[in-house]
Design brief:
202 residues, mainly alpha, 0% strand
């Protein structure tokens, strides 16, 4: 039962989904007016660039034998996927986000790139930080920033994200995908870049 729960949790909260989740959360929380067609086009474009294309790249790399599983459990296998994801998020910043006229959303993706670069550096140091925790902690920190910036009460949503973070950490530990230091490193790598970007938009 616990194994099934852990596997479902790991798939539902895959770090690939976090950029899209942050974008949707921004549009739900922000009081700024954004034309519905603009929001839909940006969300759709981010879905393609940060989810669909990375999945296609994963299957390509798997068929080439360069990665062995979706968890990228071998540290050295993370190098190319992380580099690809950094490039795709950079493309998002320069090609998609200018249409949103949102500095908050722009710096959210800057924080994501910062976390990915830090994770890649860790890989070269032969340390495998949890990308699941990077994703959920970065998302939680960004939404916390939005709550402070717009002075809105979304305590329940933040509490839910903290609970989800705990569930993800427990799942990754139970499945033996990571140990404690890798989980903690993931939390820090996800949250700190977002906190740093606060100085530019909060």
């Amino acid at each position: 039962m616990m194994r099934t729960f852990s596997q479902i949790t790991s798939h539902l909260f895959n770090p690939l989904f976090m950029p899209l989740a942050g974008t949707v959360a921004y549009y739900l929380v922000s009081p700024k007016y954004n034309a519905p067609e603009v929001k839909k086009s940006i969300i759709f474009a981010i879905l393609i660039v940060t989810i669909a294309i990375p999945i296609l790249f994963f299957f390509l790399l798997k068929n080439l034998g360069w990665v062995s599983d979706s968890d990228l459990s071998k540290t050295k296998e993370r190098r190319l996927p992380l580099l690809i994801f950094i490039i795709l998020n950079y493309i998002t910043i320069i090609k998609i986000l200018p249409n949103s006229a949102s500095s908050e959303l722009n710096f959210f993706f800057v924080g994501i790139i910062g976390a990915l670069i830090a994770c890649l550096i860790m890989v070269f140091l032969k340390f495998k930080a949890s990308m699941h925790m990077i994703g959920i902690s970065g998302l939680t920190t960004f939404i916390f920033g939005l709550a402070v910036h717009y002075e809105i009460n979304i305590t329940l949503a933040l509490a839910g994200l903290v609970l989800v973070s705990g569930a993800i950490a427990t799942s990754r530990l139970y499945l033996k995908n990571h140990d404690g230091p890798e989980i903690i490193a993931g939390i820090l790598l996800g949250a700190l870049p977002q906190f740093i970007t606060f100085t530019y938009w909060l």
